[in-house]
Amino acid sequence: MNNKITVGIPTYQRPNLLLRALNSLKSYEKFGINIIVSVDGIDDKYTDYKNIEKKFSSEKIEFYYHKKNIGSLKNFLFLRDRCSTEYFMWLADDDEIDVFTIENLYLILSSEKMATTAVPYWLLYNEKLDKKLLRPSYFDIESVFKRVFLYCYNSDDAFFYGLHRLSFLKQCSFEGYWWPNKMSLSNWCYVFQMDLILNGKILFLNNKNCKWINHDYGQKFYPRSSTDKYFKYFAYFIRRLNIYFLYLKKIFLKKKYLIFIAIIFIVPFLLLRDLILKEPTFHKVQFKKN
């Protein structure tokens, strides 16, 4: 595991949360994990970030500062492209993970040469700090068709924050949406993940002591869809159509022509389901009232 794994943390105007994320990775040096932090723009939080950098100056953490804000997507990709180790994972600045979890993700992923990603349990906190342990979607099936079909039918974006083989992750892309969603990043991870699904298995680390902690209540710094009720619904419909188009495009470019034809026939039913159930929002976790 020594010097085989890099954790990339994109951050923007949240130095206090970055500090929590870094503290969750205690003992990372012992296991030879590299950490790179990308600060998106020099602004009024710059001094706070520099103070954190000084705090960890004797440790194996690299900080990068962008003079201008490059946006959430480019910041994520910047970290991936800076990585030179065999394995890579993102950690959002408002989330947490421990080295024990990373170590165990590495053990199962390194044992399956054709797997692209390994994902742990997902511990979700809401704004009331209620918590719920979730089993994320995973696709450990040999058949590419079954992986693609199951991914289109029922997935989440949790394995985006799993441990990835960098060689496969560098093949992933998101080219952006059509109008009127050109400025939106809603659900972009789903499109990005399709490349991982096409390339290999998504493994699940079935150990409840291993988890990625998602604090799903903080401010999000990326463009959302319009707030106008009717236009928002129209934009949502176009975005879902666009997502399936991008899925099909990736399948076709991968030369999986039989899968391409099969998914074309399935898409109208999936799109109808999405319009009725507002996919993927029906995955929204329901916390029990105390």
Which features does this protein show?
single chain, 290 residues, globular, 40% helix, alpha/beta, Spore Coat Polysaccharide Biosynthesis Protein SpsA, Chain A
In one word, what is the shape?
Answer: globular
- Percent of residues in helices comes to 25-40%
Query: What is the oligomer described by this structure?
Result: single chain
Q: How many DSSP E strands?
A: 11
| Overall tally of structural domains | 2
Describe the biggest sheet?
A: 7 strands, mixed
Order of helices and strands: EHEHEHEEHEEEHEHHEEHH
Radius of gyration: 19 Å
Class by alpha and beta content? alpha/beta
Poorly predicted runs are: none
Q: Please report which band the strand proportion falls in: under 5%, 5-15%, 15-25%, 25-35%, 35-45% or over 45%.
A: 15-25%
Distance between the termini: 42 Å
Strand order of the largest sheet: 3-2-1-4-9-6-10
Number of helices: 9
* Overall pLDDT score: 91
Write the layout of secondary structure elements.
Blueprint: E1 5-11, H1 15-24, E2 33-39, H2 46-55, E3 61-65, H3 72-82, E4 87-90, E5 95-97, H4 99-110, E6 115-119, E7 121-125, E8 131-134, H5 144-153, E9 163-165, H6 166-169, H7 188-199, E10 201-204, E11 211-215, H8 229-253, H9 257-277
Parallel strand pairs: 1-2, 1-4, 2-3, 6-10, 7-11
Antiparallel strand pairs: 4-9, 5-11, 6-9, 7-8
What does this structure look like?
The chain has 290 residues and is of the alpha/beta class. The protein has two domains: 1-93, Alpha-Beta Complex (Spore Coat Polysaccharide Biosynthesis Protein SpsA, Chain A), CATH 3.90.550; 113-290, no CATH class. It has helices spanning 15-24, 46-55, 72-82, 99-110, 144-153, 166-169, 188-199, 229-253, 257-277; strands at residues 5-11, 33-39, 61-65, 87-90, 95-97, 115-119, 121-125, 131-134, 163-165, 201-204, 211-215. The chain has a seven-stranded mixed beta sheet, with helices on both faces. Strand 1, helix 1 (15-24) and strand 2 form a beta-alpha-beta unit. It is globular and about 55 Å long. The model has no long low-confidence stretch (mean pLDDT 91).
